[in-house]
Description:
The protein has helices at residues 12-31, 35-48, 54-60, 184-187, 213-226, 261-276, 306-317, 323-331, 383-396, 417-421, 446-460, and strands spanning 52-53, 69-73, 79-83, 93-99, 104-115, 118-126, 139-146, 152-157, 195-198, 236-242, 247-249, 255-258, 283-289, 334-338, 341-342, 364-367, 371-372, 400-402, 412-413, 426-431, 433-434, 442-445. By secondary structure, the chain is α/β, with parallel strands linked by helices. It has two domains: 6-102 and 259-460, Zn peptidases (Aminopeptidase, 3-Layer(aba) Sandwich), CATH 3.40.630; 104-242, Aminopeptidase i, Domain 2. Strands 1-2-3-13-4-14-20-16-18 form a nine-stranded mixed sheet, with helices on both faces. It has a six-stranded antiparallel sheet with strand order 8-7-10-5-6-9. The model has no long low-confidence stretch (mean pLDDT 95).
Amino acid sequence: MERPNAWKDYTPERVAELNGFADAYREFISKNKIEREICAASIEMAREAGYRDLAELVREGASLSAGDKVYVSNHGKGLLLVELGKKPLADGLNILGAHIDSPRLDVKQNPLEEKNEIATLDTHYYGGVKKYQWVTIPLAIHGVVCKKDGTTVAVAIGEAEGDPVFCISDLLPHLAKEQLTKNASELIEGELLDVIVGNRPVKFDDEEKDKTPVKSAIVDLLAEQLGIEEEDLLSAELEVVPAGPARDLGFDRSMILGYGHDDSSCAYPSLVAQLECEAPEKTAVTILVDKEEIGSVGATGMTSRFFEDAMAEILALAGEDGSLALRRCLRNSRMLSSDVSAAFDPSYASVFEPKNSCYLGHGLTFNKYTGARGKSGSNDADAEYVAEIRACMDEAGVHFQTAELGKVDAGGGGTIAYILAEYGMDVIDCGVPVLSMHAPWEAISKADVFEAYLGYKAFLQLA
């Protein structure tokens, strides 16, 4: 049951449409690399599409009906978008769910130090990374610094033309005899992921005045350029990511090389599909969440009560108040848990099972189950729901494929699917195939992200 390569079916007009979507996606992920930026940009797009802030509607005592569009921000790092459908909310929702956090390096709270006249920022890696991949590449710093007076300073250094970049050093091969005998997981230790930020010392008349003149120079620059003191870093969220824009990949420009395809290649098509949804029968919902890469924990992760509480507020404004109505709404819902899958890589074919793998250019990928060690920790979609989704995709002419995450004993992984499934709703994992997943630079096919967009649009229109 090999699924065909989507490119073979495209007309010139379809390729032009695909390229337009891929260009917009590439620009979006180049400008928005962390969850705060993605959330803010998504809210701006949503407001332009007619979405209103739920908090404002609650304060006004407004009522909601079919066609109304609502958004809810979760601490500026997660987002819920809802367009009310013609059917009662208690009949269920069509939900797209993706995460907007990606593997990275987080700057520690007390990060700045100087050793032998090199100033660095200490970091703690976030999510599943191969630490050796993060050394010697150009890095940027994104995030916020929150001051005691309540003001917040946005930070994005290393992206604009003329910006400086940062890096983590590695040992030269000439002196790396011992280092090269280590296992890959031990090659670079977590505490060695120190980001180099400066080397020029402050000049003092008395050389004994400051034992860390380079660090002092950086502190002065932070005050001059950002208006922050060193102590303000205690209440900062600064994330270190690869510097530079996403780029077309290959002579044929059929792919995109970029940071954060996991999971922006699902989040962006979900967002656009939601904003383009027109008069759905069932209420259309897209939820973009944080913290998936570290277990979906915390106030901005999928395990929080944010989604449930926001839907309770919306039900109340729609005249369907009450615990029972909320439970019926969630139980009767359908969801696509939109997360990436591992594309078959011929360089590492031994860990894949070819006929149950996904391939670049073959379209949106459905994973009936994920998990590891006998499906542990997995949502497993039932056959009836899989059949319904197959029919939806075929009717809409969407290219899709099915896959597992590698060979049975090779490893595995998880998504947010099992969390939503706890409400009793139908959930299946689906997303875009990715090469070099969790690396600083990942690769996807333009065809696959385009087919994801088409598939998500079709799903939101299901009655």
